[in-house]
Structure formats: C-alpha cells, structure tokens
Amino acid sequence: MAIFITEASKVIVQGMTGSEGQKHTTRMLASGTNIVGGVNPRKAGTSVSFPQGDSHVEVPVFGSVADAVAQTGADVSVIFVPPAFTKAAVIEAIDAQVPLVVIITEGVPVADTAEFFAYAQAKGVRLIGPNCPGLISPGLSNVGIIPANISGAGKIGLVSKSGTLTYQMMYELRDFGFSTAIGIGGDPIIGTTHIDALEAFEADPETAAIVMIGEIGGDAEERAAAYIAEHVTKPVVGYVAGFTAPEGKTMGHAGAIVSGSSGTAQAKKEALEAAGVKVGKTPSETAALMREILSA
After folding, report:
1. Are residues 159 and 285 in the same domain?
2. How many distinct structural domains can be found in the chain?
3. Are residues 115 and 176 in the same domain?
4. How far apart are CA 89 and CA 194, in angstroms?
5. Pair (225, 95) in one structural domain
6. Residue 87 labelled as part of a binding site
7. Where is the CoA-binding domain (predicted)?
8. Is the pTM of this model over 0.90?
9. What's the CATH code of the domain at 198?
10. How far apart are CA 90 and CA 40, in angstroms?
11. Residues carrying an active site annotation
12. 246 in any annotated domain
C-alpha cells in the first residue's frame, strides 16, 4: 500500500527532454515508475530513448499535457522546468486535470507559487512542492529525484521538508522499509503539507508508524502537532532541523527563517512532544526512536 502513488500511476514528465529531465527519467524508469510520456511543444511527435539495462525504452513526447493525458491516461505529472516557466507548466497540468502534480524545480518565485497553488485548490488538484525531491513508494513507483536504492518497501511513512534528510532517514531505517516517503519542500508556500501527509498515512492500513521531519521557520510543525494530537493514532517520531541556526537568518530553504521565538526548533520540538511525538536531537537519534517503536 502507498499514499498518492502506486504501481498503477501513469506518469508524464514536463521537461523530460532537458538534461535534468532526461537524467531523472532514466532513474525513475529504472526504479519501476510507469512513465508514459514527456511534454515539449517543440518536439511533439518524437520520442526519447532511455537506457535500461541492456536495452532501451522509448518514451513518446507530446506537444501539451492535454495531449499526453488524452493519449495515455496519465494521472501524475512531474515537472523539471526552469523557475521562469514553472507557473505556466503547473497551470497547464492543472488545466489538463492531472490529479497529482509534483514540482521538483527550486527557485520558483513565491508569488508564482501562491498563484498556481490557489488555482490547484480551486480545481481539486494535489500539488507536491515546489523545491522538493518528490515521493517514492519503494518497489511500486518513484516520482522525482529520491534515490530508489537506499531503502525497500516496509511499514514506515515519512514526510519531510528536507530532501537530504529524507534520504538519510530512509537509509538509516532501510532494514524496516517504507510505505511511502514524501519530500514536501521547504518553500514558504507548498502544495502538500505535513498535515496532508499525516492524514493519508493515518488512513493507510499498511503504514504502521510515521516519521515527520520539519525545520525552523513558520508554524507548519506546530500546526502538525495540533493535528497529531487530535487525529493521529499511529506512533509518530520527529526531527526538527535548525537547532543551531542564528535568529533572523534564512537557512537554506526560503521558508526557514526565525523571527523572535516564533519558528524556532525548540518551540517546534516542545509542541510536538506535547502532542505525544518523540523528537530526536539528531536524525540518527530520531531513527533510533523509530527503531525502538517498531522493535517493541
């Protein structure tokens, strides 16, 4: 079982013919993702050949997302286009009624994200990202840039603002495995939130426990803590990146900025612990807390 994607998901890649798109399409195909097409108006009607083992896979290129959906039945789009073109790409996918749009691009202007996020909500489309590594249900589907060989399938659900911490947590708990790991991104405005993922993991019968990784800035983790206290019955362990971050300085992610006591790692840790979440001081300690729960 998995959340948001399964082995039946039909994925198109907006920006597949670019260098990043080609590199990660090769990786996604190798990990079993059902990629049914790419989108490039200038290369419609052609195909791209991707090496897979001793052979190659030919993936058709369509002139628009609407054409790709009409001809393939695609229900997921993953976007690898430069920031200046991301808003148009997302809106095109929403207009084509793709139910799930995963936006890998970083550096998307916040005003653009606000616009296409509001549009997606109005149209009932789920966005993941921007500035995220995507999501993986090991052995079923991998949409984005998460390495597929660091962990197998299992019963842990993982939701994280950080790409690299997603990879570390998957590796540290690889002997238990994951139902789905989802990197939601660290921008000030993102499509899918911690709460959205927590709700889906709570409803997924194959997810036994949840790891939640947050970071300084904003109040997403505090809101997630309140949600956990009210709605989540499964064990949750957490980690908040940024305990040593200086106040008032943006750290890495555009959303990771602390103002006074608001948004600090300590405040988030306390809110999560008050909701019954065990919070580690380091990623490795967080993994150890999950290991204790699953080994009990």
Report:
1. yes
2. 2
3. no
4. 24
5. no
6. no
7. 4-108
8. yes
9. 3.40.50.261
10. 14
11. 253
12. yes
